[in-house]
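Checklist before submission:
- one chain only
- standard amino acids only
- sequence pasted in full

Submission:
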Amino acid sequence: MKLIHRFLFVATTLACIPLFADDITLSHGKGRVDVKIDGKLFTSYHYDGVPKPALYPVRWIDGTGMTRRFPMEEALPGESNDHAHHRSVFWGHRHVKGGKNDGIHDFWGENSNSGKQVSTEVKCGEDGAIHSANKWVSKAGETIATDSRVIRFSASKTARIMDYTMTIHASQGDIILMDDKDAGMGFRVPDTMCVTPHGTAKIKAEGYMLNSEGVTGAGCWGKRAKWVDYSGLVEGKILGVAMFDHPDNPRHPTSWHARSYGLCAANIFGKRHFEKLADKNAGNYPLKKGQSLTFKYRLYWHAEKGDAKKIDAQYRQWIAAKGK
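Returned file contents:
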């Protein structure tokens, strides 16, 4: 991809203009960054007016929506409207301990007791990536921690790819990312792609879930694996998405909060849930003030039902690439 401009654009000051000719462009809209491939919208990074940053929609080559509509848009008749905090593609954590009174704060849910991930800066980099900084603000208005994110995009004639690097900073003081099944890097697929749709959906589903260890369907929940693939029927086509866990990530291979109703989250924290342990703090990850924790994931959208050999080849190619 050839650079045609060498500038950084800050969300709060001015809009981006296309960075790449006839390939991938990043441009600011109101409270979002739009990502286009060959002039067609691939996804938008929403950072304003939402409780946490989210990428929505995520569109296939022909424009088909690859993540659930709700809650980023109102559900259509028959579509599910459960778990309003499952915002397409997102990061969250249900229980984060820290702050002045060493309290426990929710940055996964979106209810009256939850905190918010508030963007402080969003840039379109000359490297073709979105660079985002966020503060984790408690219900009481206290900043508990901060994060920085780098999201890169690539494509081919048969795939759409998103590389998401998330770094959590204990910038304000000591924190503990506590043991909980509701945490990590997640996405929510359309109802028709689900293995077993949620009860709020009134739509027939033809979905299939597979992990790198050969486990399928609902059995993927809580299992450790290098990747999980979700594929199924979407608008008359069989499409899929795999999420890859990088070997450099903490506690690799990660466990997966992978639900048959369409949620899939890479989660290293939920050990007591996934491994049925008595110790409720088994998955805790403490960070001292000034420390940070980095995760790297790839989301790989593809055509056809997930094929273990093909997906694993893509995974091995990713981890072998320099700078990934």
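Reviewer check: The chain has a mean pLDDT of 92.
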